[in-house]
Amino acid sequence: MSTPPQYPRQIPADPAPGDVDHLSESDDYSPDDEHGESTLVAVLKLLGVFVVLGLAIFAARTYFATGDETVRVGSCGKLSGSTVEAEFAVAECADADANYVVAQRLDGVDAECASVDYASYYQTSGAEYTLCLRLNVGEGDCVDSALTGASTRVACTAAADFKVARIVRGTADRSACGSAATDEDTIVYPQPEPMTLCLAPPV
Fold it and tell me: What is the DSSP letter of 179?
């Protein structure tokens, strides 16, 4: 385990004659202070690693905050921003920028969607609610999954994260994509119309 870097502590110059050196109790130096700060930094860095790993597992499954009270189930829209601050703007489903469809609208902040594969967008002020969003994609579409933002349709090149090879409608079951299907190469949407996305490499 590596030791966090230690930085030299700056020692103030001696006060000039006639100056009054104000030193509060909180200014006293203690080795424990530096050790505590280093430990906190190490813990925060470790937590950061776990957060990044969790996001990287499947960035299409992300949580967003703030929102618009006018959206309803079936609405399409453009989800933009990041996990810290996001915006969902209603748009026509055929719009190239409409990357998500509202599959569920639930009361409360960060309510549990019917599947972990939905992206979740929630409003934290006023009438609190959660939107469970599915990707607005068709067979053959390729997707770029940003680690801390919304997934978007992109050209099918090596830069894309995956291609939607097949959509099985009427069932929300990973096995619909084959007996070897896993969580990493399928997306399951139980609501409102059950469907399973079978994923493949983009090229």
Answer: T
